[in-house]
């Protein structure tokens, strides 16, 4: 049981034994300072409890060394607070382990500073959880480098927030891995910027889910290039709000495939501009059905290229009137 108090004559240079630390009451850690932290030996820190760690005076955290932090019991990090995180020295972050990160209280991540994150060991980021990532400040993402982003656990991306995604530089966002993009929360794409989209490799477009694409703004859809659009899953195209359809670049629609045409809802076709209709890939026009083209006005129907009209089915041609 943790019933013992800190010895009145506690000498940091001699430290606490495993048995002493094991029985020390959590409240005793409230009075610790950076000098006293030096008395916590690595072998003893290996059995520190979450309750003890939680009570640690935040100002004392500056006294931890990388060796001490690496030796800390992973479970102890379940008790970490934002103020404690904020006061940790930058150097100790390079010693964090994956197991420690997995156990860290999500709330503690609110206190993490950009310089601390920059020093974080890449292996530790493999233990990042969605709840932890959701608590991280936008400033961390604003200053992130590609190596740190790709080191993050893929499933942690489910916690990505719009302001976090929007804070990533286009270059960093362009380095994201397929497994990470796949796991990213759809709501996060509300923060996606046009500059970021322009850096996304065309091959990555097939990874995007319908739900993710549905959250993209018209500003982002406007910068889709033909190569990116070609790789967009038909199901994803079919989930775009009809009101956003006019934002799609005519040049991109020039690459539309049979599968993409087939996925279009009649309400989406109804929102296409004459420039978009004129630019449609003629080779994919055979996939249009009568219901999709039935809502086109005479002027819109005339905008279709002769090659497109030629490739329409008999039923689709009849729908044009």
Could you explain the architecture of this structure?
The protein is mostly helical. The protein has a domain at 201-321. Helices cover 46% and strands 0% of the residues. The chain is built from 28 helices and no strands. It has helices spanning 18-23, 34-37, 42-45, 50-55, 66-71, 82-87, 98-103, 114-118, 122-125, 130-135, 138-142, 146-151, 162-167, 170-173, 178-183, 194-199, 210-214, 218-221, 226-230, 234-237, 250-253, 258-263, 266-270, 274-279, 290-293, 298-303, 306-311, 314-320. It is rod-shaped, with a radius of gyration of 28 Å.
Topology at a glance:
Layout: H1 18-23, H2 34-37, H3 42-45, H4 50-55, H5 66-71, H6 82-87, H7 98-103, H8 114-118, H9 122-125, H10 130-135, H11 138-142, H12 146-151, H13 162-167, H14 170-173, H15 178-183, H16 194-199, H17 210-214, H18 218-221, H19 226-230, H20 234-237, H21 250-253, H22 258-263, H23 266-270, H24 274-279, H25 290-293, H26 298-303, H27 306-311, H28 314-320
What brief labels describe this structure?
single chain; 321 residues; mainly alpha; 28 helices; 46% helix
Total strand segments:
0
Order of helices and strands: HHHHHHHHHHHHHHHHHHHHHHHHHHHH
Radius of gyration: 28 Å
Beta-strand share of residues: under 5%
Let me know the average pLDDT: 95
Structural class: mainly alpha
Report helical residue fraction.
Answer: 40-55%
- Please tally the helical runs, counting DSSP H or I stretches of 4 or more residues: 28
Shape: rod-shaped
Mind describing the biggest β-sheet?
A: none
Instruction: Give the CA-CA distance, first to last residue.
Output: 86 Å
Pick out the low-confidence regions: none
């Amino acid at each position: 049981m943790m019933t013992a108090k800190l010895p009145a004559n506690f000498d940091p240079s001699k430290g606490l034994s495993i048995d002493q630390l094991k029985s020390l009451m959590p409240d005793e850690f409230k009075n610790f300072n950076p000098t006293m932290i030096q008395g916590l030996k690595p072998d003893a820190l290996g059995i520190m409890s979450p309750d003890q760690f939680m009570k640690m005076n935040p100002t004392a955290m500056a006294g931890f060394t990388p060796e001490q932090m690496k030796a800390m019991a992973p479970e102890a990090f379940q008790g970490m607070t934002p103020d404690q995180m904020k006061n940790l020295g930058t150097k100790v972050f390079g010693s964090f382990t994956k197991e420690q990160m997995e156990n860290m209280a999500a709330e503690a991540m609110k206190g993490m500073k950009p310089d601390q994150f920059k020093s974080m060991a890449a292996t530790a980021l493999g233990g990042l959880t969605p709840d932890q990532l959701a608590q991280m400040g936008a400033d961390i993402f604003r200053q992130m480098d590609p190596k740190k982003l790709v080191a993050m656990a893929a499933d942690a991306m489910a916690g990505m927030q719009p302001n976090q995604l929007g804070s990533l530089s286009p270059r960093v966002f362009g380095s994201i891995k397929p497994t990470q993009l796949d796991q990213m929360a759809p709501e996060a794409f509300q923060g996606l910027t046009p500059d970021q989209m322009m850096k996304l490799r065309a091959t990555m477009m097939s990874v995007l889910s319908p739900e993710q694409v549905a959250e993209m703004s018209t500003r982002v859809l406007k910068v889709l290039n033909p190569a990116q659009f070609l790789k967009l899953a038909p199901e994803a195209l079919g989930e775009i709000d009809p009101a956003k359809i006019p934002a799609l670049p005519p040049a991109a629609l020039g690459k539309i495939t049979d599968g993409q045409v087939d996925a279009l809802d009649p309400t989406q076709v109804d929102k296409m501009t004459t420039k978009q209709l004129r630019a449609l890939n003629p080779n994919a026009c055979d996939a249009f059905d009568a219901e999709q083209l039935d809502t086109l006005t005479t002027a819109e129907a005339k905008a279709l290229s002769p090659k497109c009209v030629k490739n329409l089915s008999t039923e689709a041609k009849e729908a044009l009137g």
